[in-house]
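Appendix B, record 7
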Amino acid sequence: MRPCNRSLKSCAPQSKRHHIGVAPYGYFVQNGCLVEDSREQVVVQKIMKLWSEEKSLSDIARHINGLKIRPRKGRAFDHSIVRSIVNRHESIKQKTSGGKHGTQ
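Structure tokens (predicted):
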């Protein structure tokens, strides 16, 4: 069983929403709540760092594959997997900052 990192707010007691389905990369489902997977979060942070350095999605996928890191399903990361991770992370960032990225 994976270690539990309860820092994710989606598992707060006041939250009545439960996650149904497959957890996105960087998370796992525990008792119906999304919980951060510490090993996958390291990869997510690396992807976001490379994205902030204006690397392309394909370049990021090649870099991660070069580190011998594999996605949960499939043999290798590709641009579409990286895009979904970047989009999800930026969506979460926008929700927590209260506005859209790039607006004043």
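Remarks on this record: The mean pLDDT is 82. Strands lie at 27-30, 33-36.
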